[in-house]
Design a protein that fits this description.
This protein is of the alpha+beta class. The protein contains 8 helices and 4 strands. The chain is 55% helix and 9% strand.
Length: 223
């Protein structure tokens, strides 16, 4: 299948764009990985003239944004669903696509949004309170993902979250795991000895052709 010209716009951090980048890498579909030179304001107090000018041109003034043949598509989950279909990562049928989407939505609401709030909080007392809540959420999400993997492995032995092939849910799980390790508390995920399948899944995903090379070539990118 001939692909359009893709340009993924985000900061030079992993963040919310990383599962999208990994999808491109795994599918071996060329894309321009455009990285804004400045860091977002919650990570750096430095001026950001490039970002200040760019966000005025974007659909919602936020990133990531996917440019497809000169047209902009905003919002991470919308981009992810679009790419999953175009890159063959949407499951074997509509039901599997919906199942994968439900897992992604769950991780977003129960982990990603609270994580963003935690990372952006500057008040030390408030940040400690948010960290305590975050750790409880992480434990809950980890257990839920482990249970989903366990059920699908018992069903078909694939080792994936949905059906017998990679879907968007698998890429989201990898990003969840390493967001915890890099943004919240290094080593925290290793404490969940009962979540063996989750750790094995992340290790296997990171070793896949395309993904392995992408991760190795971007090892020094901030979280």
């Amino acid at each position: 299948m001939e692909h359009p010209k893709y340009k993924l716009i985000y900061f030079n951090i992993r963040g919310r764009a990383e599962p999208l980048r990994l999808m491109f890498a795994y599918a071996k579909v060329p894309f321009e990985d455009y990285r804004i030179k400045e860091l977002p304001s919650y990570l750096s107090p430095e001026p950001s003239p490039e970002w200040d000018a760019l966000k005025k041109t974007l659909p919602f003034g936020t990133v990531p944004v996917l440019e497809v043949d000169g047209k902009y598509l905003g919002e991470t989950n919308a981009i992810a669903r679009f790419l999953a279909k175009r890159l063959g990562l949407a499951g074997a049928n509509r039901w599997e696509a919906a199942q994968a989407d439900s897992i992604v939505s769950y991780v977003y609401s129960d982990f990603e949004m609270p994580c963003i709030e935690y990372v952006r909080e500057m008040n030390p007392d408030r940040k400690r309170l948010l960290l305590s809540r975050m750790l409880d959420r992480i434990a809950k999400v980890s257990d839920k993902l482990e249970n989903i993997l366990q059920k699908n492995i018992a069903k078909n032995g694939s080792g994936f979250y949905v059906g017998e092939s990679l879907t968007l849910a698998d890429f989201t799980s990898v990003t969840f795991y390493y967001s915890v390790e890099t943004l919240v508390m290094p080593g925290f995920m290793g404490q969940f000895h009962q979540n063996k399948l989750l750790r094995e899944h992340v290790t296997r995903m990171r070793a896949l052709p395309g993904i392995r090379e992408f991760i190795e070539s971007h090892a020094n990118v901030p979280s």
